[in-house]
From TrEMBL, chains A, B:
<keyword id="KW-0663">Pyridoxal phosphate</keyword>
<dbReference type="InterPro" id="IPR015424">
    <property type="entry name" value="PyrdxlP-dep_Trfase"/>
</dbReference>
<dbReference type="GO" id="GO:0047536">
    <property type="term" value="F:2-aminoadipate transaminase activity"/>
</dbReference>
<dbReference type="GO" id="GO:0006571">
    <property type="term" value="P:tyrosine biosynthetic process"/>
</dbReference>
<feature type="domain" description="Aminotransferase class I/classII large">
    <location>
        <begin position="123"/>
        <end position="493"/>
    </location>
</feature>
<dbReference type="GO" id="GO:0030170">
    <property type="term" value="F:pyridoxal phosphate binding"/>
</dbReference>
<dbReference type="Pfam" id="PF00155">
    <property type="entry name" value="Aminotran_1_2"/>
</dbReference>
<protein>
    <recommendedName>
        <fullName>Aminotransferase class I/classII large domain-containing protein</fullName>
    </recommendedName>
</protein>
<keyword id="KW-0032">Aminotransferase</keyword>
<dbReference type="InterPro" id="IPR050859">
    <property type="entry name" value="Class-I_PLP-dep_aminotransf"/>
</dbReference>
<dbReference type="GO" id="GO:0008793">
    <property type="term" value="F:aromatic-amino-acid transaminase activity"/>
</dbReference>
<dbReference type="InterPro" id="IPR004839">
    <property type="entry name" value="Aminotransferase_I/II_large"/>
</dbReference>
<dbReference type="GO" id="GO:0019878">
    <property type="term" value="P:lysine biosynthetic process via aminoadipic acid"/>
</dbReference>
<comment type="similarity">
    <text>Belongs to the class-I pyridoxal-phosphate-dependent aminotransferase family.</text>
</comment>
<dbReference type="InterPro" id="IPR015421">
    <property type="entry name" value="PyrdxlP-dep_Trfase_major"/>
</dbReference>
<dbReference type="GO" id="GO:0009074">
    <property type="term" value="P:aromatic amino acid family catabolic process"/>
</dbReference>
<keyword id="KW-0808">Transferase</keyword>
Length: 504, 504
């Protein structure tokens, strides 16, 4: 395996840094802690005796949606001494900007066990949510004359993170398909865009510095890039020398294939042979990190969808030169993520790890296994919701009348629905307003029928460039309280399409 | 009282915004939540049933440094329904970027009760620690050609927040004095600097946009600006039209005067008439907000020193136009502060408020009273530590031999000590290296004697401009475990000064 030291990475990747990055220098007035026996009177840190809270006790459910007051579950206790390696006297104190070491160790082990990078010389840095990570990444990389490529439909707030720098965002065409080999970024068009940049539609811009991709269970399309496509994208990245920013909030929520004959079939709940190892080896799609021989991939993971959004806790994986730049950005802005959030995550994961350890202090590997067990439980519930939703959608009159298609996602929290236009309804005109108008009308019909969805065109990087593909709506299966609410919502969707088409 | 609407504030303060501020626009793909009866399938928010933690229980001490397992204290319980207005199903979810409303209401009431601004049209915005608040404020205000004034000694990491924008930081001379009327920014020199800008040492820079001041218990000098000085600074701010950024992490830690005849006297512990109201009216120094008829003051408060640094939670008070810009900055970067941290603060303060309320649901005023009671307990411990430290310092041989002075602070966590140079030891030369060299030697002597302190010159905005004032060291009384450690540290300090001067 190729090994990169810091100097090599610096030489290789300095040219990617924004000009503003050079201005980021924390003015430090303190020195490292003194040796033993020296009384510390330097840091303006209040002794933990001043903290009003001296114990925190958590109850952890054994399953998502578990009944209150169930006798199951775990109890987690934290005080000034527990957990030993991250007691409250530490997590409630000023802590390292990059995150507390036990949590970093856990994150590194996650990466090693699941997405072992193809090089040595990588590291992780905790951040305060993926939005925080994203804007820091683009602060490090972008100036006003930088260009960033994004999938033509994307989590559009990320566009703001790039535009904050004054930089340009350009869309990359996708294939919206049920075929796993075809899903996601259109490789030929990506290659063509870059090979012929100087005569293409963006020739007035600098060639792209980075590609931002939500590669698994893409938001909003639900598409997942196959390994073959990932390899081709990587080759293109090498040829044109850009950085791949891989955002993966949903990858762990991977769906077994839907079976129309047995709609409620759920391997997470039915398949006794589905161990953690099988989940990792056969379900989870390998990150770009696993083919990253150049150290050009930045991967984002977050605890928002897998634990709770209110934590505002996430981490970035990249080569050590780039993680150091991201860390440096945090040093002069947010400093450390919430210590309370880090403690809640670490202590719970540690408790989950105890079940896989004969030792009182579980190894980091045990903690990864324990956490993956939890993730499989969450994924099992999302797979169930996917089943409920598909069954309900396919049973609607609207579907049976052929009014809409379901673009089956392979992972995540979103399902996209595409209206089936009567022949010639949308001619391939240069006037994109027609499609957005029609989609607005569909939205109104759906709202009137009692469901709120997201319009795909609202998540386009450039609606004009996506007029041929933006005719879909995105629904989420994450927020509903129960199966009944999902079923009712799907009935209303079917109705909404009927209402919409009856007006056309 | 003057009342400013948003348009007036926008017209008045748009000119203060950085050019980059215009690039800050969150790309939103979602609409407001639908009306009742419409099923929400839009937001990618996981149902709270997916959260692994369903209850959090806290133990709150009744006093700082309370014995473990004391029967005193408060128990705080949080679950999916409690506290009613901020249950875990809310605080662990995606929440408003500006902070959750109950906490914002509390912060507003704090400001109203303690530092009622001199105008209507202000608001608060939660932020993720003061460093986070600071960099956002300077992102909103500064470009590369902006100038910011700071007290000549300051919390130097803030310099990084300004330099991140490429902007310039210039020092404002201070008076380092025991006299409360003289402490802090030298008004005459500030007026002279600005009145004669175009012929002064910074004439090549734009006139300052803002003054950053830690006005009470200044870090590192411990100085507090008198009300008279605050009024004069405000007049100068009006004359030269700059914004005042008032950072107040320590103001609540206000010290009753030290009594050499009764060194252990502590009004927080001894004075039965010291009510919350008396503390607010007679101890706390009024913020610049209370004289801010123009709406030109931005005030920062933080929970770091008063609750715990690991929360990463703070808030900003300013006119609505400026809080909206700071909010907007958060929308495209960090988004909301940690919901867990907000829940820990709110639920504890609410519980403290119950003691001042006959209702089961305490009013916001009761919560402010409860919180202020806690702050007085914290301040009482800092006052005690100040007493212990002063007594110990004054009893050292080094002090009795006249080797150093103690610059008595009026609030906060820091005490500064100044070596008493033999006659002519430091001539007023242009070579500032002499003073920094001597201070480095003092530092070595102190380290050898077993204490680590902070050198004042390391916290100078511009050491060259502060060579006449930078000969002090800063010690903190915050971090030590107990009185004995403080006493031992002070003995070592006395020794350190003896060692230093014996070598000269």
């Amino acid at each position: 395996m190729v090994k990169y030291d810091f100097e090599t990475l610096r030489n290789r990747y300095s040219s990617f840094l924004s000009r503003r990055d050079a201005a980021k220098q924390l003015v430090k007035f303190w020195d490292n802690p003194p040796g033993p026996g020296v009384i510390e009177l330097a840091g303006g840190m209040p002794n933990s005796g001043f903290f009003p809270v001296d114990t925190i006790d958590l109850h952890v459910v054994s399953q998502p949606f578990e009944e209150r007051h169930s006798q199951n579950g775990l109890k987690v206790h934290m005080d000034k001494n527990e957990p030993k390696e991250m007691p409250l006297s530490m997590s409630l104190q000023y802590t390292n900007t990059e995150g507390m070491e036990p949590l970093l160790s856990f994150a590194r082990k996650m990466v090693e066990c699941i997405n072992q990078p193809a090089y040595e010389g990588w590291d992780v840095c905790m951040t305060s949510g993926s939005s925080d990570a994203m804007y820091k990444i683009f602060e490090v990389l972008c100036d006003e004359d930088s260009t960033v490529m994004m999938e033509e439909f994307t989590f559009s707030p990320v566009i703001s993170n790039v535009k904050l720098q004054g930089a340009n965002v350009i869309p990359v065409k996708m294939q919206l398909s049920a075929n796993p080999e075809e899903q996601g970024i259109d490789i030929d068009r990506l290659a063509d865009l870059l090979d012929n940049w100087s005569v293409g539609p963006y020739k007035h811009l600098n060639k792209p510095k980075a590609l931002y991709t939500v590669s698994t269970g893409q938001n909003p399309t639900g598409m997942t890039l196959s390994l073959a496509k990932r390899n081709r994208i990587y080759e293109i990245a090498q040829k044109h020398d850009f950085i791949i920013v891989e955002d993966d909030p949903y990858g762990y929520l991977f769906f077994p294939p839907y079976d129309t004959k047995e709609p409620m079939k759920n391997a997470y709940w039915d398949d006794k042979s589905l161990t953690v190892q099988k989940y990792v080896d056969e379900y989870l799609v390998k990150s770009f990190l696993t083919i990253d021989t150049d150290a050009r991939v930045i991967r984002l993971e977050t605890f928002s969808k897998l634990y709770a959004p209110g934590l505002r806790l996430s981490f970035v994986v990249a080569n050590k030169f780039l993680t150091e730049r991201i860390f440096n950005m945090s040093e002069v802005t947010t400093r450390a993520p919430s210590g309370v959030s880090q403690a809640l995550v670490y202590s719970v994961i540690k408790e989950m790890g105890k079940r896989h350890s004969s030792e009182p202090e579980p190894s980091v590997e045990s903690m990864v296994t324990g956490w993956l067990e939890w993730l499989m439980k969450v994924a099992g519930h999302y797979a169930h919701r996917r089943n409920i939703a598909f069954k309900a959608l396919y049973e609607t009159e609207g579907y049976k009348e052929g009014l809409f298609q379901v673009m089956e996602p392979s992972a995540g929290m979103f399902i996209d629905l595409k209206p089936c236009w009567p022949q010639g309804e949308l001619s391939r005109s240069d006037h994109y307003d027609l499609i957005t108008e029609k989609m607005d009308q569909l939205n109104q019909s759906l709202l009137k029928s009692g469901v709120q969805v997201v319009l795909g065109y609202r998540m386009a990087v450039d609606v004009k460039a996506s007029k041929d593909t933006c005719d879909f709506v995105r629904i989420t299966i994450a927020y509903a309280n129960d199966d009944a609410q999902i079923i009712e919502a799907c009935h209303r969707i079917g109705k909404g399409f009927q209402v919409f088409f009856s007006r056309m």
